[in-house]
Structures are given as structure tokens and as C-alpha cells.
């Protein structure tokens, strides 16, 4: 049996993000990819694996061609926001098995600019075909699906709207420390509650921002780490899970597929949730953060509301800093945001985050991070555990 190689993230970068009116999605892909390769200090000729989704008719063929790559390993898995954690798991397996030496994951979107220019409208629905045809006649929008799940948690466990609002407040507090975040002005629980209603119980600030932007991550086999300009961040373990296609098929609105992907990732990494120093969690809506914290094992089921109180998610003084860049609620959210979680986790472990840098109780840099993405309406989940040293 051939020994499996260790796999490290050696490049992580964002394109221009936020309000980008003068770039195409392809240009944002290219910008993020160039920056990730420059971050690693490696030439693109080393890249023989490529993963991309969400752009073009033949993704990732079109994007690879645009970038001038001819990969011999590709992945176009598309499971919404969790796509990139799932792709990272697939890439790590391929590299470990010797099927690739360096895999580049890239994403880019002009979701905000397209709406402003009239090239598209807001995403209220994913369509009317397949299982979705049985829900669409009832006016069940994308946002309403998340709102209904949040309401179920509130009824089941007594979670309050103020506790959900705390997730938005603390995300904004972290964003205030990030000069690249789209929105940095602090908000209060009262301000979150007073906003316009979007889908009961969600007001505007319970929902993610709409931005432009791209991200890229480069994973390599252990033998190439010595050639990199950055310190390696090792992929310790990963898990993935798909749950349901329609809300009517979801057995329990208070349990997300992260309960499975998280368990698998932690088991494969050989670490416990209590050992994690920083968590990057998909947060298209405040409820996603709360329920994912429960399902990853940071608190018991039903205790997420109490857990997010008292500033536990903050970079400054928080017991478990979560979404340290401000997350999708405040920093940026150009669509399938899972790759941004990986970039921020890598930067935190490498100590590159400036004012928002997480420190452990003894003042040292974090050693372990988890990135957990969610896709669809809790239809899928991918979780990756990363570590240094």
C-alpha cells in the first residue's frame, strides 16, 4: 500500500470584494487565483488540479481555460455554499492518494453588480423543477425556508429573537476590525430587531449582505511545502453530508447536516470541538450560525441561543471567535461563500489578520480552526478541520 501524503494549504487570497462594478466574474476568478499563487510563492505550472463551480456552461472547463490551466484532475461539485469545503475534502484526498500534486480552488461572482446593472434579479427561488415543484405553489421563497427553520428552533427550544440578533451584532463587531469588510459600523440588538421585516422572524440585518468578490485556495502535497513562502496549514480532517431536497423531506428543522459532516471531520482529524481556537461558519442568516454551532458540538442541541450570548463569538474577548472577518452578515457574500471561510481560517492560523487576529489565552496564535459550509436550504454541509505545527 502506498503511504498517503499529507496535504497543506499554502496559498489563500481574496480578489477585490464588496462593491466591484468594473470587473467580470472571470476577472475576479483570475485575480483571486493570481493572488493565491503569489501568496504561496509557486508558479501556476505546478497546478495540475482545478476545482470550480458556479460559472460557465462547462465549469470548471471554462474557468480553467480562462486561467490558462490544463488540469489532469478536476472537480465541479456544486452543492451551494458548502461546495468549497466539499471540494477541499476531495482535493485533499486526491493529493494524498497521488492523483494530483497541487489543486487550485477558485470562485468569483458579481452578484451585487449584476443586480444593480439589471443583469439579474434577487435570488428568491432555485426554480420549479424536480422536488421543488411541490413547494413553489405555496410561495416558499429561499429566505422563507431559513426563516421557517429558525422559527421551529424558537418554538422547540425557546430560542429568542434577541439571541438570533446577537449573532448579527457580534459579526458586525468582528467586521469593525476588518478593513476589507463591506459594513463595519457597529449595530445593537435593538437596531437589528427594528429593521424591515424580510421573512418572519428575520429582519434585514438577520440576512447576509449581497456583494461582489472572489476567493482562491491552493492545496499541495507535503513535498512542495518547502518551496513555499508561507507556513503550511495542514488539512487534518474533513466530512461532507447531504440531507434533503425539499423542506418536506427534512426530518428535523433544528438539526442541520453539519451534525454529520462535523462529526466526521473531527473524528478524522483526531480532535475535539473543545480544542478548536477559531470557527468560520456559513452565515447567510443568523440562524445558520446558531444551529451549526450546536451541530458541530460547541454546545448541546437547543443551547445555541444561550451560547451566542455574552459575546462568545467576538474576536475581542470571545470564548470561541466565530466568523472573524465579519462573515456573510457583514464582510462579504457574493453567492457561494464557503471558500471565503477557508481563506479566513488559513489567515487566522498563519497570524495574518492584523487587528482582528485571534489569540489564545496565553497570547499565542491559534493552532486549530474549523470551516463549515452549508448549501441550499440546509441541504448539504461540508466541514474541514485545519491545523498548524
How would you describe the overall organization of this protein?
By secondary structure, the chain is an alpha/beta fold. Helices cover 31% and strands 17% of the residues. It contains 12 helices and 11 strands. The protein has helices at residues 25-40, 61-67, 83-96, 111-116, 142-157, 161-175, 189-193, 258-269, 286-295, 304-308, 327-330, 338-349, and strands at 7-14, 49-51, 73-75, 102-109, 197-199, 202-203, 213-221, 233-242, 278-281, 368-375, 380-387. The strands form 2 sheets. The protein has a 9-stranded mixed sheet with strand order 3-2-4-7-1-8-11-10-9, sandwiched between helices. β5 and β6 form a beta hairpin. α6 packs across α9. The protein is globular, with a radius of gyration of 19 Å. The model has no long low-confidence stretch (mean pLDDT 95).
Order of helix and strand elements from N to C terminus? EHEHEHEHHHHEEEEHEHHHHEE
- Give me the side-by-side strand order of the main sheet: 3-2-4-7-1-8-11-10-9
Number of strands: 11
Summed up, the helix count is: 12
The fraction of residues in strands falls at 15-25%
Q: Note the quaternary state here.
A: single chain
Mean pLDDT: 95
Structural class: alpha/beta
User: Largest sheet, if any?
Assistant: 9 strands, mixed
Distance between the termini: 27 Å
> What share of residues is helical?
25-40%
- CA-based shape: globular
Radius of gyration (CA) equals 19 Å
Uncertain spans: none
